[in-house]
Write a structure and sequence with these properties.
By secondary structure, the chain is mostly beta strands. It contains no helices and 11 strands. Strand 4 and strand 5 form a beta hairpin.
Length: 117
């Protein structure tokens, strides 16, 4: 059984920073892309950032220049460094892991990020 354990969410003032982590453990034989999505109340879940096994990244336009995604393949862990946070970044952030051996990606349980103005 595979588990995704997220950490690092919390409450921060506008302009502040947070770092999210997501570690995959269990019987996961191969990971391709890893990413972060977010969902604010009343909104659909949206992609924030994604990184491939080769290190190629893509970001939502709203976070470019402020957020940085990275991964540690040896630890099956993905990180999201969030700087210059804005109130509109407030959402539940979900880790997403893709594997060529799985038809559907894996999702974390979600971690709340709240940015106060």
């Amino acid at each position: 059984q595979v588990q995704l354990v997220e950490s690092g969410g919390g409450l921060v003032q506008a302009g502040g920073s947070l770092r999210l982590s997501c570690a995959a453990s269990g019987s996961i034989f191969s990971i391709s892309a890893m990413g972060w999505y977010r969902q604010a109340p009343g909104n659909q879940r949206e992609l924030v950032a994604r990184i491939t096994s080769g290190g190629r990244t893509n970001y939502a336009d709203s976070v470019k220049g402020r957020f940085t995604i990275s991964r540690d393949n040896a630890k099956n862990t993905v990180y999201l460094q969030m700087n210059s946070l804005k109130p509109e970044d407030t959402a539940v952030y979900y880790c997403n892991v893709e594997s060529p051996f799985r038809s559907q990606p894996l999702w974390g349980q979600g971690t709340q990020v709240t940015v106060s103005s």
